[in-house]
């Protein structure tokens, strides 16, 4: 199969699938000025043996998008099932036969000035494109990260468990400052100084064989990958998993550390601010979780097939 262009060719826009160039908005769009939009990020995994593109937990992703929209008073009058069906049609039109990334966006669409959320129209759009690894070249060595000087946006400032576009100004500051200082990523603390997450991924730590991750009250996005890793670790690998606050200095002495999220999937961290984590190599638990997760998302773990929705099926699946 020849690889196609990495750019989207189509988009779902104003209720239908249109050529990508036609999906444009006014420069006065409210969301563009005030960050009044919410988005999602999903992956599709191509399985060569079955010649099938599998969407990873699309219903959960769209459920979170609907919750994010509701937090921002954005009307998104579609169910997770309807959104999944639109996505399947979009991907069939795009004719993608490789791993891909999908970006749905619900936004305040009225071209108008004035900071508020009410009395403004809303719209929804979605695009998809082929997409591989987010941490290209670091799969073998692991990432070298710092603690960001920026704090994670507090849930009492912008809903942390919503994927709110405006909050990604915080993520962008965190990511660029880390990269421009020579690191691969950053760890971000809450305002009370506990570990929250990365710029756009959740964080997990291993100490003495236990998988530990900050609780969902630590100003973090309730990650669908995080939830999946917890399930796999507990039920499939039989590991102890604990959700609790993590102090900064625990990170330095962790045995293993890794990010998880749709973008990074599972990305090992082997150094924090020039301190080696564990052996300085990708740890055994991280490695096993990485392998297991990839088997699950590619449809190779029968017990987790229910996480996947096939794109190239004849009939609509959910409506
Ligand atoms: C801030 C933030 N945290 C965590 C995650 C991981 O969430 P998920 O696993 O649902 O992609 C993301 C997005 O990918 C994110 O943007």
* Helix/sheet category: alpha+beta
User: Which ligands, by name, code or SMILES, are bound?
Assistant: pyridoxal-5'-phosphate
Helix content: 10-25%
Please give the CATH class of the largest domain: Alpha Beta
Helical run tally: 7
Number of domains: 2
What is the CATH architecture assignment of the largest domain?
A: Alpha-Beta Barrel
Runs in which pLDDT lies below 50 for 5 or more consecutive residues are none
- Bin the strand percentage: 25-35%
What form results from the Cα inertia axes?
Answer: globular
Task: Describe the sheet with the most strands.
Answer: 9 strands, mixed
Rg computed from alpha carbons, rounded to a whole number of angstroms: 20 Å
Average pLDDT confidence is 95
CATH superfamily grouping of the largest domain: D-amino Acid Aminotransferase, subunit A, domain 2
Instruction: Give the helices and strands as they follow along the chain.
Output: EEHEEEHHEEEHEEEEHEHEEEHE
Features:
single chain; 319 residues; alpha+beta; D-amino Acid Aminotransferase, Chain A, domain 1; D-amino Acid Aminotransferase, Chain A, domain 2; 2 domains; nine-stranded mixed beta sheet; eight-stranded antiparallel beta sheet; 17 strands; globular; binds pyridoxal-5'-phosphate
Give a concise summary.
The protein has about 325 residues and is α+β, with helices and mostly antiparallel strands. About 25% of the residues lie in helices and about 30% in strands. The strands form 2 sheets. Strands 8, 9, 10, 11, 12, 13, 14, 15 and 16 form a 9-stranded mixed sheet that branches. Strands 1, 2, 3, 4, 5, 6, 7 and 17 form an 8-stranded antiparallel sheet that branches.
């Amino acid at each position: 199969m020849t690889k196609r262009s990495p750019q989207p060719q189509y988009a779902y826009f104003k209720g239908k699938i249109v050529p990508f160039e036609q999906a444009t908005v006014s420069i006065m769009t409210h969301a563009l000025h005030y960050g009044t939009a919410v988005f999602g990020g999903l992956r599709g995994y191509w399985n060569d043996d079955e010649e099938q593109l599998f969407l990873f937990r699309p219903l959960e992703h769209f459920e979170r998008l609907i919750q994010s929209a509701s937090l921002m008073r954005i009307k998104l009058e579609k169910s997770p099932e309807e959104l999944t069906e639109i996505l399947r049609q979009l991907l069939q039109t795009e004719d993608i036969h490789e791993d891909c990334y999908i970006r749905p966006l619900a936004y305040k669409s009225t071209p108008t000035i004035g900071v508020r959320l009410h009395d403004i129209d809303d719209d929804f759009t979605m695009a998809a494109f082929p997409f591989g690894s987010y941490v290209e070249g670091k799969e073998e060595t692991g990432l070298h990260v710092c603690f960001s000087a920026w704090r994670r946006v507090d849930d009492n400032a912008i809903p942390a468990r919503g994927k709110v576009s405006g909050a990604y100004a915080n993520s962008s500051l965190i990511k660029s400052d880390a990269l421009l200082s020579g690191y691969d990523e950053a760890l971000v603390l809450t305002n009370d100084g506990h570990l929250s997450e990365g710029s756009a991924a959740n964080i997990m730590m291993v100490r003495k064989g236990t998988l530990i991750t900050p609780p969902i009250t630590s100003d973090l996005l309730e990650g669908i990958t995080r939830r999946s890793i917890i399930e796999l670790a507990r039920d499939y690998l039989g590991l102890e998993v604990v959700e609790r606050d993590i102090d900064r200095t625990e990170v330095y002495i962790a045995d293993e550390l890794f990010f998880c999220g749709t973008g990074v999937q599972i990305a090992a961290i082997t150094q924090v601010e020039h301190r080696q984590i564990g052996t300085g190599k990708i740890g055994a638990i991280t490695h096993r979780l990485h392998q297991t997760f990839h088997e699950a998302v590619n449809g190779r773990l029968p017990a987790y097939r229910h996480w996947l929705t096939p794109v190239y099926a004849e009939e609509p699946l959910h409506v």
